[in-house]
Write a structure and sequence with these properties.
The chain has about 120 residues and is an all-alpha fold. It has helices spanning about 1-15, 25-35, 40, 50-55, 70, 75-85, 105-120.
Amino acid sequence: MITRIVGGLVVVLALALPVAPTEAADVAKGRKLNVQNCEKCHGKTGKGDGSLLKRMKADVKPVDWTDKAAMTKWSDADMTKIIKDGGKSAGRSKVMPSYGEKLSDADVGDLVAYIRSLAK
């Protein structure tokens, strides 16, 4: 009986304690990360028309981040995996490199938020 009361009290206290807010993604920081890491392939506006792909004559076309219909097919988890582990890890282009060693989890979250902001 006492165990149930104590257990119930723990649950009530846990529910009453304030929860720290999660860190919000920073779209402006994501934009800067895009310029530094993504723009050369994904283009200045995110349409997948970057200069590096043209020079490589790569037979790939990145997803147009401004195309809302196309972007709804990708969850944030999908985009995070592709950014961190590279395109090949998600069955996408082997040309897309991995950035898991270069970008922190917060950086990737900021970048995903920026990419999402382009599809309107």
